[in-house]
Amino acid sequence: MLSTIAKRQFSSSASTAYKVAVLGAAGGIGQPLSLLMKLNHKVTDLALYDIRLAPGVAADVSHIPTNSTVTGYTPEDNGLEKTLTGADLVIIPAGVPRKPGMTRDDLFNTNASIVRDLAKAVGDYSPSAAVAIISNPVNSTVPIVAEVLKSKGVYNPKKLFGVTTLDVLRASRFLSQVQGTNPASEPVTVVGGHSGVTIVPLLSQSKHKDLPKDVYDALVHRIQFGGDEVVKAKDGAGSATLSMAQAGARFASSVLNGLAGENDVVEPSFVDSPLFKDEGIEFFSSKVTLGPEGVKTIHGLGELSAAEEEMITTAKETLAKNIAKGQEFVKQNP
Ligand code: NAD
Ligand code: LMR
């Protein structure tokens, strides 16, 4: 039997050798996300890719004194292949952000083909990596990646994730603002998808089940449309980048913790889910326990209030369309 010290040494060496690739690393999210991944001690090899500037971002980030190698690539000299080969986790924030007046779905025409092409490269060069999609519209880009990986025969539903962590961070923060509490002790489960009415906070499962109706309604609206606050405030210069980098780094860190075999690693994520598959909804965000193979357990929604049941029904209608749009795009534009 291994001694406690030997076990600790074994588990620490098993959990400190991951290659992480960031595609879109020179963007508003990509840069701070790359910085935060450089600070993650489980990452030994950080590979940054963008159609512009990634070598500069890599040179900058590489001076931070943590024990990882940072490389930066552009499309020249097989940059994407070099970025992806050997990656354990690929994070994709490549694509255009919203401007005021746009919905996330308005980004589809530009981002669908960017994500499709990057997914093809993932299928070719890092087919067994975990893949975390940040690029919007997440409700459609995740199905796009799934279809591309299926067409290459390398789709692993346990390793494809839509990043919805920002909705959960916002929910905690906004609830804590209403209650005058510490957001760290206000966990809120958020399920569904990542856009407007598909974002469904389950406040009945929080510590504050009995909020006055006007407060409840305003809070739900703020959680569902929190992204718009940032888009409006940035006034044409983009959408959430810094809070998203924090959310993406938290999610990535949890994926690595899961791969490393740590216990009880739970994050919300938009995944290939059995929850509403019989209704034709193949992807849904709920709490997921992460493990060495990626998704370990997909949690159910738990007990819902009548208002939450209604929001789920509305969310499912939009989700079905968003998912079908992504799948159809790949069929029409393989
Ligand atoms: P940005 O324009 O600042 O950065 C995007 C980067 O992607 C740019 O550096 C660009 O050069 C790069 N890029 C474009 N095409 C590429 C390609 N084919 N290969 C590699 N890189 C490519 O945008 P941003 O603010 O960083 O946002 C990126 C995406 O993330 C947007 O679609 C945005 O809507 C989305 N987003 C998602 C969430 C979420 O919660 N999931 C939150 C915020 C933003
Ligand atoms: C967000 O939630 O902040 C992102 O999805 C970006 C956006 O377009 O709002």
Characterization of this structure:
This protein has helices spanning 4-14, 30-38, 54-61, 79-84, 108-125, 138-151, 165-179, 213-224, 226-234, 242-259, 306-332, and strands spanning 18-23, 43-49, 69-73, 89-92, 130-133, 160-162, 190-192, 199-201, 265-272, 283-291, 294-298. It has 334 residues and is of the alpha/beta class. The protein folds into 2 domains: 4-162, NAD(P)-binding Rossmann-like Domain (Rossmann fold, 3-Layer(aba) Sandwich); 165-325, L-2-Hydroxyisocaproate Dehydrogenase, Chain A, domain 2. The strands form 3 sheets. It has a 6-stranded parallel β-sheet with strand order 3-2-1-4-5-6, with helices on both faces. A 3-stranded antiparallel β-sheet has the order 9-10-11. Strands 7-8 form a two-stranded antiparallel sheet. The N and C termini lie far apart (52 Å). Residues 97-98, 104, 136, 166, 227, 230-231, 239-240 line the site of (2S)-2-hydroxybutanedioic acid (LMR). One of its GO terms (molecular function) is L-malate dehydrogenase (NAD+) activity.
Helix and strand topology:
Layout: H1 4-14, E1 18-23, H2 30-38, E2 43-49, H3 54-61, E3 69-73, H4 79-84, E4 89-92, H5 108-125, E5 130-133, H6 138-151, E6 160-162, H7 165-179, E7 190-192, E8 199-201, H8 213-224, H9 226-234, H10 242-259, E9 265-272, E10 283-291, E11 294-298, H11 306-332
Parallel strand pairs: 1-2, 1-4, 2-3, 4-5, 5-6
Antiparallel strand pairs: 7-8, 9-10, 10-11
Helix pairs in contact: 2-10, 5-6, 6-11, 7-8
The structure holds nicotinamide-adenine-dinucleotide (NAD) and (2S)-2-hydroxybutanedioic acid (LMR).
